[in-house]
Fold this sequence. Notes:
- Among the domains are: 2-74 and 92-188, Winged helix-like DNA-binding domain superfamily/Winged helix DNA-binding domain (Arc Repressor Mutant, subunit A); 203-309, Winged helix-like DNA-binding domain superfamily/Winged helix DNA-binding domain (Arc Repressor Mutant, subunit A, Orthogonal Bundle).
- The protein has 18 helices and eleven strands.
- The protein has helices at 2-7, 13-26, 41-45, 52-64, 93-100, 105-115, 127-134, 141-153, 203-213, 224-236, 248-254, 262-274, 306-309, 328-340, 361-365, 383-392, 398-401, 413-417, and strands spanning 35-36, 68-71, 75-78, 123-124, 157-159, 164-166, 183-184, 187-188, 244-245, 278-281, 285-288.
- The longest helix is centred in the first third of the chain and has 14 residues, at 13-26.
- Residues 170-194, 292-323 and 395-413 have low confidence and may be disordered.
Amino acid sequence: LRGDLVRKNHRSGLGRLTNALRTLIQTEYLTPGTHLPGRKLARHLANPDILPKTVSNAYMQLRHQGLAIAGQGRGTRVAGPAESPASALPADWLERLQHEMEGDRWFEQVLRTHLLNLPPHTLLPPHEKLAELLDLPETSDILLKNAYSRLAEGGLLVRGSNDTRVADHNGPVHPVTAPQTSQTAGATRPTTNDSHPLLPITWVRDLRSELENNPFNPSSGREKATWFAQALERNIQSLEHRTRLPSFVQLAEQLKGAGVNTSLVQRAYTHLKEIGQLTAEFGKGTWVAKTRDAMDPATGPGLPQARTEQDEPPLPTDPLLDIPELDETQLQELWETLEAEEPRATPPVMPGTRLDPHADRAAQATAHLTDPSHLPHLPHPDVHDILSLLSRTGRPRPHALNPGRPMTGTWNQGAAEQ
């Protein structure tokens, strides 16, 4: 929490607008599918710190965090499965947005985002202790006390006589301020049934250390995205299956000093998803995939074990893998043999004649189309055919294999059988 507060200027126009919109989405005041106004929102807010570019940048941050989506010619709307028809903006939404941007609510919004990532019943430090731990001039005791009170009123915290805990998200809570499906920075709020392993505290530090010790070399002949993706792939090998990773925005921010930006992390995540090292679900974040055995014939190396996890049977293997392919000479021999065969004459067929009135007329009229009797066919080869093929290609005849047998002008049955 302290690192987040240090890195971000939440009191700037962009920070306050982004945090306020995030709160309205997380509390489901703005429901999935709701269209957000475009750059004209700056004119409606009439705030000198909010320019049209500020609105565009705020929407971009919400898209990076998985809270909003945009389509060509369709504007920006709240992420998630949309209702039909899509929800309209509430009549008082501008007043609510301006209220969220006022005063010291910026800290409540940041704290809310971090609380949504904690399991239910997590014990929080008293507001006095938290102010001491944060050691930031802008996070006073009074500020934290007010934030705790508002979050408790909204159902996100439970305040006892001696402690403060995260509320049970599965129980009855305020229908507006604590929905079960809230999203934060591309990740869902954990519940008692969400058993994602925790990311080790030192994981980002170790990744940063590797990047700093092996910086990108432009003369290496590989792209910078490849350099970072390979380092990321090495560092996720030690993580447990379903370990949740930071969003690409969060990871880029923590690796900023190592020459990594948001675009680089996003491209690396996409590449690792394509090769089955990572998996993701819309609005729920990115986590380590469960990979198959490297020798799995059904899906190949490194692919997610989706079929096994869904109790589906493995894909069948090819039963003809051990049959050798014919070489050019053998193909030529087979072709010549087929050409020598006289094709059977196609029997004349008059559609509609000799039809059984009690049967399917269409099936009888087209039966000749599936009758293979007129097609050229090669009878099953016997020993004579094999010997004939061998003799025509100049390969050793049977007498060469058995020098003790006298040669004759013609091959009799005994010679053929031998």
